[in-house]
Design brief:
The protein is an alpha+beta fold. Helices cover 64% and strands 8% of the residues. The protein contains ten helices and six strands. The longest helix has 38 residues, at 142-179.
């Protein structure tokens, strides 16, 4: 991906509770500098908050010390604090900035793209009107020119629809490639997205990112994540919910054991309440 030339940092960053706590610690100001360096590096890498030298070479503590021109001791202290405070997480030895979208002005970028689209559309409309007027004056055949303009509009609308369909597909795959490393989990997420469409609750790009972050918090293993997703797919739930775990209840392939029918009904009633809430 292309390098991001800027990141979004609010003016009240030093009023943040976590930053305040860090600055009170030994070498706290140096650790805050490391945090800003990590944000800038994530922007340079531009992989949805992940930082790495190359896709096959993750950063080690020693490599970050060289990259940031900091002592190894400061780097280790900083990374330990950031993980403890939930500022970064680690997946398959790759460091990742939690809630990375917070440091990207997503709404501003979308607004700018929409403004550019409207401006281009207006310019094209003016150009078509000018071309039609000039040609009609020369040929005296306005009906033919109007028909040509309509046909051109239809072609442009079809091209735009094709491009939108391609873009909708690409943003899903871009998010999956940036946020999910396991191919099995990726495929299960695709099935979850299909289910959401079938129940008339399609996902936006922000909703997908939030869902993936929630899935990571609920279970760190690919197997557990797929089980949580499959639970929602099988029950047509819009959200993700923890797997039911109770020492008095065990669910086996052959059905329920060591539990009466009332307990089973209570369990499913509680899951349904969570899904509707």
């Amino acid at each position: 991906m292309a390098e991001v030339k800027w990141i979004k940092v609010t003016t009240d960053i030093f009023d943040n509770s976590k930053i305040k706590q860090i600055r009170k610690m030994p070498d706290g100001d140096s650790i805050v500098v490391v945090w800003l360096q990590i944000l800038c590096l994530a922007g340079r890498v531009n992989s949805n908050g992940y930082i790495f030298l190359t896709e096959d070479i993750p950063y080690t503590d020693e490599m970050l010390a060289v990259e940031f021109d900091q002592s190894l001791q400061i780097i280790k202290m900083a990374l330990s604090l950031f993980k403890k405070f939930g500022m970064i997480d680690v997946t398959d030895n790759l460091y990742h900035v939690s809630a990375w979208e917070k440091y990207q002005n997503v709404d501003g970028m979308e607004k700018l793209r929409e403004q550019n689209r409207i401006r281009v559309a207006r310019h094209r409309e003016k150009q078509k009107m000018l071309e039609c007027n000039v040609t009609c004056n020369v040929t005296g055949n306005a009906d033919v020119m109007v028909g040509n303009a309509i046909d051109k509009d239809k072609e442009e609308e079809l091209d735009k629809e094709k491009e939108n369909t391609k873009t909708r597909h690409n943003w899903v795959e871009d998010i999956l490639d940036g946020f999910v490393l396991d191919d099995r989990v990726k495929e299960t997420i695709r099935e979850f997205i299909k289910m959401r469409k079938l129940i008339k609750a399609p996902m936006t790009d922000r909703a997908l990112k939030l869902m993936i972050n929630k899935l990571r918090e609920m279970d760190s293993t690919p197997e557990g994540q797929m089980e949580i997703l499959n639970q929602s797919i099988e029950n047509s739930w819009k959200g993700l919910y923890p797997l039911k775990s109770d020492k008095n209840i065990s669910k086996l392939k052959g059905g329920w054991t060591n539990v009466n029918r009332d307990q089973e009904n209570d369990f499913y009633a509680e899951i349904e309440r969570m899904a509707q809430g």
